[in-house]
UniProtKB/TrEMBL annotation:
<feature type="domain" description="FAD/NAD(P)-binding">
    <location>
        <begin position="184"/>
        <end position="283"/>
    </location>
</feature>
<keyword id="KW-0560">Oxidoreductase</keyword>
<dbReference type="Pfam" id="PF07992">
    <property type="entry name" value="Pyr_redox_2"/>
</dbReference>
<dbReference type="InterPro" id="IPR036188">
    <property type="entry name" value="FAD/NAD-bd_sf"/>
</dbReference>
<feature type="domain" description="FAD/NAD(P)-binding">
    <location>
        <begin position="3"/>
        <end position="143"/>
    </location>
</feature>
<protein>
    <submittedName>
        <fullName>Thioredoxin reductase</fullName>
    </submittedName>
</protein>
<comment type="subunit">
    <text>Homodimer.</text>
</comment>
<keyword id="KW-0285">Flavoprotein</keyword>
<dbReference type="InterPro" id="IPR050097">
    <property type="entry name" value="Ferredoxin-NADP_redctase_2"/>
</dbReference>
<dbReference type="InterPro" id="IPR023753">
    <property type="entry name" value="FAD/NAD-binding_dom"/>
</dbReference>
């Protein structure tokens, strides 16, 4: 059997694409080995009708809906190799399975690496977060800490001021913020520290103290940090797709990559994290683009 489409990744982009393609009566092989980036998150927000849903519950409901369509198959295995064929793709898995598909959709998201600071792993997703839109409401009016050694920390701090006026911004070293930016933050009583963080202290997922390399400590109840992200797509050498400045798969805005038959959706295209609703929408758009291409090919043969 040759599938109409193989989807790599079972996050919101891949699942929504599978739903749209299933409803279009396309034969779909959905590869998902259940290692979502947001597994540590206690709840996801900003998705209408799903605000506050846990990642596990989101996946459960999504798979229940997607697999109602008989042409969609779930393959809970890791893809280890992909080869471009004259008319499609050959996908190999860790278990030795091989399937062939006319179209391929990458929706494999991002690989996340947290800062190498003691204590961060026990707090991330509970009282330390990245996205203000996802978790700012839960930390409103609390004493917050922002850690980012990138100039974007300035914009991040200004955003967080909407949720809390008790902010301390740490750049983990000098030269990140300009004097003008420091003055703007200071005018709003936002404290800037250029010291390096040596540890986060807390228990039961709740941040209590931030410790600096000089031994000083400050009390905080929550904060925002910036992990490093790398698109999980892989197989660039084998497939030859173009990437953007952040390492994401370059697409035309409708999910189509520079390789014929290869599509991408969600965070794997941006190289940057996004909300569930945004990734799901991207999956829907890519699926419609795939279905249109399959339709045009059927009528031109």
């Amino acid at each position: 059997m040759i599938y109409d489409c193989a989807i790599i990744g079972g996050g919101p982009a891949g699942l929504n694409a599978a739903l749209v393609l299933g409803r279009a009566r396309r034969n779909v092989a959905l590869f998902d080995h259940n290692k979502p980036r947001n597994a540590v998150t206690h709840a996801s927000h900003g998705f209408l009708t799903r605000d506050g849903v846990t990642p596990a519950e989101f996946r459960r409901v999504a798979y229940e809906e997607v697999l109602k369509y008989p042409s969609v198959e779930h393959h809970p295995v890791e893809v280890t190799d992909i080869r471009k064929l004259n008319a499609g793709f050959l996908i190999s898995t860790h278990e030795g399975e091989q399937i062939q598909a006319r179209k391929l959709l990458f929706a494999s998201g991002l690989q996340e690496t947290l800062p190498d600071i003691p204590g961060v792993r026990n707090l991330y997703g509970k009282s330390l977060f990245y996205c203000p839109y996802c978790d700012g409401w839960e930390l409103r009016d609390k004493s917050l800490f922002v850690l980012w050694d990138h100039p974007r920390v300035f914009q991040h701090a200004k955003l967080l001021y909407n949720w809390s006026r008790d902010l301390i911004v740490c750049t983990n070293g000098p030269g990140i913020l300009t004097n003008e930016q420091k003055q703007i933050l200071a005018s709003r009583d936002i404290v800037v520290s250029e010291q390096s963080v040596s540890a986060f202290h807390g228990s039961d997922g709740k941040l209590r103290l931030v410790e600096f390399t000089d031994g000083s400590r400050i009390e905080r109840t929550g904060g925002f940090i910036a992990p490093k992200w790398v698109p999980r797509a892989g197989f660039q050498q084998e497939l030859g797709y173009a990437v953007n400045d952040l390492g994401g798969i370059l697409t035309d805005g409708m999910g189509k990559s520079t390789v014929p038959g290869l599509f991408a959706a969600g965070e794997v295209t941006t190289g940057f994290p996004s909300q569930l609703i945004v990734a799901a929408a991207a999956g829907s758009i890519a699926a419609a683009s795939i279905n249109l291409e399959l339709t045009e090919e059927a009528f031109s043969s």
